[in-house]
Amino acid sequence: MKVIITGATGMVGEGVMQQCLLDPAVTEILLVNRNASGYANPKLHEIIHENFFDFSTSGQVLSGYDACFFCLGVSSIGMKENEYFEQTYNLTLALAEQLSKVGPGMTFCYISGAGTDSSETSRTWWARIKGKTENALMRLPFEKVFAFRPGFIKPTKGLKKTHHFYRYITWLFPLGRLLYPTGFCTMEELGKAMIRSVSLREKRKVIAGKEIIQLAAGKE
User: Fold this and answer.
1) What is the pTM assigned to this prediction?
2) Given pLDDT bands bounded at 50, 70 and 90, which one contains residue 167?
3) Burial 184-201, CB ≥16 within 10 A → b, else e
4) Best label site of 6, 76, 109, 181, fewest CB within 10 Å?
5) Across 95-179, where does the E strand assignment appear?
6) pLDDT of residue 58
7) Of 189, 219, 27, 1, nearest in space to 106 by CA
8) 3-state secondary structure of 91
């Protein structure tokens, strides 16, 4: 399959890209970034697109792909609600709406997060905004849309974009996985689950917790 990946300059996007590079089922990868990723591989192509709020002139470049793995996102920490809405809902839909026009047969996979509120009624504003984003994506005329809601993600060792603080907390992963397996997955599992979701029979689904781990292991 041929896939588009956003957010490869961040930890999750880089991790998903790594799994796509390793998976023989993925034959071509288009990275859409605001800054160069620094990676080179025969499978990889990269475009630098500075304005992620406008893809109106990029239709031809973005057509012909089977899936988009949207891994671009920001933390709500220190942000105001209107800023987070702009950087989460508006930014995601700008690309998704364009892709749905040029590639309606695509699968769109969105990295959301544990705690997201699909009802859009939560007292926590980031959870409402994430839920609103998921719901808007589900209404777009893609062949399939999946919202992934991982909790704690254990980074892949050796990758460049891992946040520094993970070196201090990764030791908690085995204990967390034992006590609360639905809230802990590895970056490898998340990447594999996204790749394998493209062949799922379901058309619209939230994938979280144990489902991420099961899908990564080839269990639907």
Assistant:
1) 0.93
2) low
3) bbbbbbbbbbbbbbbeee
4) 181
5) 107-111, 144-149, 152-154
6) 86
7) 1
8) helix
**CA distance from start to end of the chain:** 19
pLDDT above 90 for 153: no
What distance in Å separates the CA atoms of residue 152 and residue 185, rounded to the nearest whole number?
Answer: 6
Tell me the three-class secondary structure of 5-48, residue by residue: EECCCCHHHHHHHHHHHHCCCCCEEEEEECCCCCCCCCCEEEEE
Q: Which residue has the higher pLDDT, 89 or 178?
A: 89
CA distances from 134 to 59, 100, 128, 173, 182 (A): 23, 15, 10, 27, 20
* Residue 195, amino acid: I
The 10s digit of each residue's pLDDT in 2-53 is 999 999 999 999 999 999 999 999 999 999 999 999 899 999 999 999 899 9
- Residue 160 confidence class, pLDDT cut points 50, 70, 90: confident
Q: What are the residue ranges of helices labelled H in 103-165?
A: 125-139
Contact by Cβ (8 Å): 20, 5: yes
Hunting for tokens 């979280």 — which residue is that? 208
